[in-house]
Amino acid sequence: MPPRVWFITGASSGFGKLMTEHVLAEGEIAVATLRNPAALSDLRAKYPASQLLVLKLDVTVPADIVTAFAKARDAFGKVDVVFNNAGYTIIGEVEGTPEEDARRMFDTNFWGAANVSREAVRVFREVNSPVGGRLIVSSSVTGVNAVPSAGYYCASKYALEGLTQSLAAELDPEWNIKITLFEPSTFKTSGQTNPFIYPAHPAYADKPMLITNIARDMITHGKAPAADAAKAVGKVYDLAGLVSPPLRLVLGKGAVRQVKAKAVDMGKNAEEFESWSEDLLPN
């Protein structure tokens, strides 16, 4: 079986770089895309051009996404797996985060990821037919269960979750395109340890026991339990080999606990107010 070609965004650090390293170590081909190609000079020195292609890519520029996929196809003839991973975190209360900065983050976390997914699906359908391909979209457990002090980041992941679920439901099964949302908890990556942090909003700043300040303290001082990101990447790599992958891969004990608790809470809430829906039909 020939090696698969992986197209990876956000490859400069975090899950993106770890996935690039893992793919290469497994003997497969990596097309690593990032804003600053110099960040992968170590890997370029270690692996031949026949196994590693490093491309400059800003996912907020749709035309550049199309060009990057075309270069990958020109180099290797196909793209088998897309790890749609570019994104970053901002920490701050909803009231304390500048709107322009939140919008800029959405340009990467949501619109950039959305346009990568669109192009991946097109390539899988029109170039890879009938083999199709695998699209793995990096989300977060905060795209399922929002947390305080990261409202706009959570919102960007909620939006990406909704779009990805709709996209997966729209696809013709004959195209053989499999999509999975990767929903990790806290892992030791640069995105987790070096987020953009805004000063506490004055209304919250002098109340240390508010949950938003407790959450901020855990994030900014590295107090949140963090699992091994390299091991997580190995699980995501294995996911790409499954015949019938899940729509969601919830990864990390903390993430699993949060998702289970969220499901129970939503079920209880629906049951508590179920009777309110019984008399809504027209007479």
TrEMBL record:
<dbReference type="InterPro" id="IPR002347">
    <property type="entry name" value="SDR_fam"/>
</dbReference>
<dbReference type="InterPro" id="IPR036291">
    <property type="entry name" value="NAD(P)-bd_dom_sf"/>
</dbReference>
<dbReference type="Pfam" id="PF00106">
    <property type="entry name" value="adh_short"/>
</dbReference>
<protein>
    <recommendedName>
        <fullName>NAD(P)-binding protein</fullName>
    </recommendedName>
</protein>
<comment type="similarity">
    <text>Belongs to the short-chain dehydrogenases/reductases (SDR) family.</text>
</comment>
<keyword id="KW-0521">NADP</keyword>
<dbReference type="InterPro" id="IPR051911">
    <property type="entry name" value="SDR_oxidoreductase"/>
</dbReference>
<dbReference type="GO" id="GO:0016491">
    <property type="term" value="F:oxidoreductase activity"/>
</dbReference>
<dbReference type="InterPro" id="IPR020904">
    <property type="entry name" value="Sc_DH/Rdtase_CS"/>
</dbReference>
<keyword id="KW-0560">Oxidoreductase</keyword>
